[in-house]
Fold this sequence. Notes:
Layout: H1 27-38, H2 42-55, E1 60-66, E2 72-77, H3 84-90, H4 121-128, E3 130-136, E4 143-148, E5 151-152, E6 156-157, E7 167-173, H5 180-184, H6 189-206, E8 211-216, E9 219-224, H7 234-242, H8 244-248, E10 250-257, E11 260-267, E12 272-273, E13 279-283, E14 286-288, H9 291-300, E15 310-311, E16 313-318, E17 324-325, E18 336-337, H10 340-357, H11 364-383, H12 391-406, E19 414-417, E20 432-437, E21 441-446, E22 449-454, H13 455-472, E23 478-488, H14 491-499, H15 501-506, E24 510-513, E25 518-525, H16 533-547, H17 552-568, H18 578-590, E26 604-608, H19 609-615
Amino acid sequence: MVRESPQIDHAPRPFSDTRPGIRRLAEGTINRIAAGEVVERPASAVKELIENALDAGATRVDIATATGGADLVLVEDDGCGMDAEDLALAVLRHATSKLPFAQDGADDLSHIATLGFRGEALPSIGSVGKLTIASRTATGAAHVIHVEAGRVEAPSPTGFRASGQSGTRVEVRELFFATPARLKFLKSARSEDLATADVVKRLAMARPDIAFVLTADGRRTLDYPGEGDLFGGRLKRLARIIGREFAENAIPVDAAREGVRISGFAGLPTYNRASSQLQFLFVNGRPVRDRLLLGAVRGAYADFLARDRYPSLALFVDCDADFVDVNVHPAKTEVRFRDGGLVRGLIVSALKSALSAAAHRAATTVGGAALAALHSHQAPAAFAWRGRSDARGVAEAARVFHAPLLAGSEAPALSARVEQPADDEAQHPLGVARGQLHETYIVAQTADGIVIVDQHAAHERLVYERMKRELAKGRVATQPLLIPEVVELDPSDVERIAARASEFAELGLVIESFGPDAVLVREAAALLGGADLKAIVRDLADDIAETGAALSLKERLDEVSATLACHMSVRAGRRLSADEMNALLREMEATPHSGQCNHGRPTYVELKLADIERLFGRR
């Protein structure tokens, strides 16, 4: 039996008399919708309230939460405070004290110099939770105002703070009680606490001159005293938040161009991570996660790190308020610059200059990792010997330590031994060569320790840097294509590529338009060899669309140079003379970035004499 398909009427239905017309949403509904954008989770409320405190001129901010912030969010500051009239206005939508007036009397959205300015945070929080604000100015009386699920009470006197002590205390209880659906989407209290701590950390990085205290469920989890000077205390604050190792392996960054300044600290390439979690970016004191800035960081470190490794850094972009638009995202985590290319170029050049100034320096964590490895391998025997004075214990410890040196009589581990005057050690940061182990590692003696160099990795970096200098001297050598390569693209991508054709030509890629939806590649850099030119051009178009800059061609040339450098450098397993070893050490000292190979791995490990003595129980 064959069933007939049901007939569907696709004709438009006429308007009926019962169809509702357009109407304005209720104020409470509007506030709850705004709260969904501004107050996504307790950490979002904390961020907005701390930003208000900073804008009020606070020198100390105390934050407390309970049950991840779902039951309580409390932020208290010693800022300028508010009187009764300001309190009543503060809980109304789009009421703010932070927007200047333009010459025509209108609100000036082009010159925003504060963290908050929309006038949405407090009414949004009050529409979904139970909000209480107590405040006092330095010369007036204290008042308190209550807002519950959008219902506002009139301000009333309160005993908050002593007379003459200004400040504000914002207390939010039962956040999202008026929107139970949003409450169900909150994560565990532990996850919400971590999100809140991250917000506090980022704002504390931006303002090291201000004290921050965070308490979760009665337990103090963060305590950052004010470091005094905004710029002088920056590294101290970063060390407290990111860690002491970051401070030990960070290099200062400071550069300015056309009214834009880049400052902060960048980690050495060998101090890298598997994710970008330790990349902190700020624009005029505002923590941001901006694609253009992150892309600039990637470009600056492209020579030094593998694609799956990320540097650690904290960079601060300071510019005139007119130069940046911070009003492109409700949470204010993204920005748009008037000249993104200028900012990107300045970040890349500032980071590269700072990394060059670090010369051959490698991360201190490299030596620490080596010592930890020695501890883990030798502890069962060598450190058991410390408590034994019998001959068998001494012999066992000696056997464990010397086993790598004694292995393989046909190819001795110590393949070259160098005699040098002892006073030469203090003259050279990497010391003087004392020997070669396994025809792969150079052992050098410094004034206060030893250095072990991977000869292949070190020479690979040296050759690569030489090749880069040659590329920088002039136009890249190109080869005409026997058959020009046609690359089909979207018309918008064709326009982007054509607009930068002269830049590509300088890098050895000669491109011209070929109709509205294709480009023609006539010449390519000799270094690229048989590379997939279509893929390169498409990558270039994607880079320009995403960041406003073409990274792929430069990166592809760098990759080719790095590959050639790898094949041209001294291979592991080659026996070096004393002169060759010392020549390699001296060139490393004179070459920027020689502390890491082209993939971000260390080229040498330094062990201080004090660390070695501790390894053997002498300290």
